[in-house]
Amino acid sequence: AGSENTIRWDFLTSQEGLEEIDRIFFSKDDYFQVGTSLHREFGEFFEKFVNLRKKELLTPKQSANDSNIESLENRLLNIRERRMRDKFAAICGDIPEHYDSRYRFNFTILTPRAPTTQQTRFKIRPAEANEVRRALVMFEDFRQRRAMKKITKLREEQRALPIFAYKDRIIDAVRNNSVVLIAGDTGCGKSTQVPQYLIQAGFASVACTQPRRISAMSVAERVAAERADAVGRTVGVQIP
Question: What are phi and psi of 165, to 5 degrees?
């Protein structure tokens, strides 16, 4: 039996526990569904989360001296972080300079299937359900941190492309002329960047033709990825 507030960590990572978690938190109406790549990724994350939480709850509290040392380390990290922010401020001017929890997508796990002390049809205890909720929020936070790093790296790569230096000139030329020819080496960014420049400048729709099916798919996927989107939403592909 055990107390309702006791967390059975081994149960949470057992086959029976994971199936119960899926039943409560991952139905077809929930944010993550069983069988999706996000669900599998969360499973890997949850195993690490449980191990860390077990260590965290078993580790004795820090002494005042330990806290002072940690505070000094944090100050040094903050100094290094400020220097890095200054270095990349010009590169990443159109997005936040670093990840901050204020920018994250905030949400609460609400489900009528979550157990309470009055419900006995669930194998998972209320305290254990709270840990799963905590893990879900941390997982989404982790995903957004990772996405932030990808976006920052992507913006650096975009600004490093040869065509970036001509962005404003290209937009002005398209606005003021019915036909504009752009010549550049392969890989300079003609197909992937120019459509994005025009959309950012206010053009309602942009079509980009490619000679082969695979090229059309590749360009659409690349542009969608750079816009943090998926093919079929704001970026589409049509193959006759």
Answer: -65, -20
